[in-house]
Please model this.
Amino acid sequence: MTDPEIEASRTRVSALSSWRHDWSGLRVAVLGLGVTGFSVADTLVELGARVRVLYGAPDPDRERLLDVIGSERACLASDADQLADLVAFDPELVVVSPGYRPDHPLTVWAEDRGVAVWGDIELGWRLRDKTDRIADWICVTGTNGKTTTSQLTAHMLLAGGLRAAPVGNIGVPILDALRDPQGYDALVVELSSFQLHRLGEISPYASVVLNLADDHLDWHGSPEAYAAAKAKVYAHTQVACVYNRADPATERMVEEADVVEGARAISFGLDSPPPSGFGVVDGILIDRGFHAERHASAFELVTLDELADRGLTAPHLVQNILAAAALARSRGVEPGEVAEAVLSFHLGDHRVQRLGRSAGAPGVEWVDDSKATNAHAADGALRAFERVVWIVGGLLKGTDVSELVERHVGRLSGVVVIGADRSGVLAALERHAPGVPRIEIDPVQPGETMDLAVAAAAELASPGDTVLLAPAAASMDQFTDYADRGSRFQDAVRRLGADERGGADGHD
Model:
């Protein structure tokens, strides 16, 4: 394109802010053919754009679907080949799947040329008016607890009679929900730091940063850049900015956010809450955020005893419940409806999932928290149990587990170290827990790794102990993802022996 053509294209793209605008013929390059990339391509083809998807690995099923809907595609293994294809296509807009780093050569080329580069969330915000029933966006982020909190919030909204769904990083692309012909009253949008990096200007109804700890530093480049990405979720919030009283970083984010006039700061925590807060008093979860007399009174939600019956008393889970309750209450869900939702909620797999006991290790509980992919998440899981044989290790993503080991050395009966590179974990154990028995598992096939790890944990455990898979690390060194790691762990526990209560795959 000539310079005048480029300028005209920029003007056209920046003005596209509605489903009803004219997207026809717009040249859009979509980077990535995962769940998100396909949803972007499918949406833009429906709008009449000319779409070309660039990706690095074959995906026969999605490739076939791209052909059916009429999208162009190019599977090219190298960045250089993809860049050459992108240049030849000469896009007016690039939409990036979440995993593409800020310094990826394709996005750098587009930005240097002045081509707009969006993520799927910005595209979704611009297209949110396909139906007359335009959903409020309730946005959830944080280092840990995003999926559980998103699921809980959506469950509470449904209990309140609203048509709602959890979308985004939780696995359901936001664009798929926005194209539902019935529309939604509210969408609970789980946002990763990758998505937040290219958030664009959205205006959430309510938003929360659950917590902040170093993570994905290899992607963002620094803790400051990671925190800045998370803080974006509060910008232009309309009604409620929910933050964690135990995490001052989240409170600072709210204080510094440019929000819609009248938006309130609502805190949550495990202590007695101030006015405009959610917390715990005498074993009862309470709401002082949305009571008309909140300086003197509060709504009672559920008790810790009721949560214990559901396996939901781990401190980080109670925090998730309080955060979700604050978000749902901001949208008008009544206290009784919040309680109804909490008491009918079931945790997803691999999230502090209790597997019961195995005859192969009498008196020992087994717990799968493979979703604990960083030190902050593993800390929450470890706090939930008194005596632990800890299965730990994997891709540490540049984080140091020394502080985690030091904090929990008093509850460790033993440690089983897995992972292709175990040096960081072993060094932390040597420094802070030299007297704790440990067994190191050399890398083998993924299934064998977990069989060996489970056998080693059974050897270290005594009656009354909990064997906890909370790796504090990503899984891709040896497994497909955290779910694959957790499933292989559960399979290995089953093989160890039949559950004393009728099957080692049961959970509370």
